[in-house]
Amino acid sequence: MIDFTKPLETVDGTPVTSLRSEGPNYNVVQIEGVGQFIYRENGKHVFGRRPDIRNVAAVVTLDTSRPLQTRSGTPVKLEGTLPDGRLVITVPGAWGIAPTPRIVAADGRAFGGPVSVEHADDIINVPAVRKTEVLNIYADGSVGQTVHASIDAARGRSKYGKVRVGYLFRELVDGKIVDASVRHAEPFLRTRSNPSGSNPYA
C-alpha cells in the first residue's frame, strides 16, 4: 500500500504530490508537468492509463570513513568534500590512463536524478565484510591464539596437553569485533594418542 502522507513519485522518477483523499480507497495526486489524476491506494491509476506511483526511497547517507566503490563494483577514491556536501572522487582509469576527478551528489548519485533511479556510476559504500572467528578456551583460563573459521575446525585443533572447556565466538565487520560470546563444552584433553579432538560431545 502507498503512504500518501510521505513523498511520492512515479515509477520512472517523476515527482508526485498528493492533493486529497477521494473516498476510502482513492487519492487525487498531481504528477509534475502532467496533471491531476486519481490513484488507488495500491499505487495504480484507476483506469490503468498512467504509470504506477510509489513512495520515494529513503536517501542513503554515505559513510565516507569507509571504502567506496561505484554501484558496478569499481573502487573509488574520495578526494574531498565541497561546502555544499557534494563529493569529489576519482575512479581509476583504464589502460593506465590517469583518473579524472568527478563530482557526485552527497548521497553518491552520479547524476542528479531521482533517488529511486539507480545508475552503475553511482557511488556506494563497499559492502561490509562479515565473518565469524572461533577460538578454543582452556581450563586454565587461557584462550588459544589460533583463529578458526568454524567450531569444527577449532574442535580438531586444540593444544596438546591442555583441557579445552569451551569456545570463544567473535563476530567481525570489516575486521572489527562487534560481538562476542562463549559456548561451554565438555572438557576434552587432546593427546598424541587422541589427536583429532573429535569428541562428539565437546
Describe this structure in words.
This protein has 202 residues and is mainly beta. It folds into 3 domains: 8-55, no CATH class; 68-125; 130-189, no CATH class. The protein is built from 1 helix and 13 strands; from the N terminus they run E-E-E-E-E-E-E-E-E-E-E-H-E-E. The strands form 3 sheets. It has a 5-stranded antiparallel beta sheet with strand order 4-3-2-1-5, with no helix packed on it. It is elongated, with a radius of gyration of 28 Å. The two termini are 51 Å apart.
Poorly predicted ranges: none
Question: Number of folding domains?
Answer: 3
Average pLDDT: 86
* H/E element order: EEEEEEEEEEEHEE
Shape type: elongated
> Strands of the biggest beta sheet: in what spatial order?
4-3-2-1-5
The number of helices is 1
Q: Largest sheet at a glance?
A: 5 strands, antiparallel
Q: Terminal Cα separation, in Å?
A: 51 Å
Q: Radius of gyration in whole Å, from Cα?
A: 28 Å
Beta strand %:
35-45%
Number of strands: 13
